[in-house]
Design goal:
119 residues; mainly beta; seven-stranded mixed β-sheet; elongated; single chain
């Protein structure tokens, strides 16, 4: 069993900044990737930013240059969100993809944290 503990989020005016963090713990044999997804009302969940075990990052086009994802050596990721826009408003979910045995993997999800950007 893997647990993801999220923190951060909240309400900010457009142009402001927020940060999110997510710590993974539990039965992780080998981490594949960690990152953040988001889901706005009436929309599908979308990838915001992920980082793989090698440190390579992947960002949603609309957040490139504004959001920065980083990871420490203890399976914790940090998402710094700058120049926030109202369209960034959503529930943000932490995701960890990992092997729990040598050849079996699965996804774990956090409970979600609300990010609201007012215009």
């Amino acid at each position: 069993q893997v647990q993801l503990v999220e923190s951060g989020g909240g309400l900010v005016q457009a142009g402001g900044s927020l940060s999110l963090s997510c710590a993974a713990s539990g039965n992780i044999f080998r981490l594949i990737s960690m990152g953040w997804f988001r889901q706005a009302p009436g929309k599908q969940r979308e990838l915001v930013a992920t980082v793989n075990a090698g440190g390579a990052t992947n960002y949603l086009d609309s957040v490139k240059g504004r959001f920065t994802l980083s990871k420490d050596g203890a399976n914790t990721v940090y998402l710094q969100m700058n120049s926030l826009k109202p369209e960034d408003t959503a529930v943000y979910y932490c995701n960890a993809r990992f092997y729990y045995t040598t050849n079996r993997w699965e996804d774990a999800w956090g409970q979600g944290t609300q990010v609201t950007v007012s215009s």
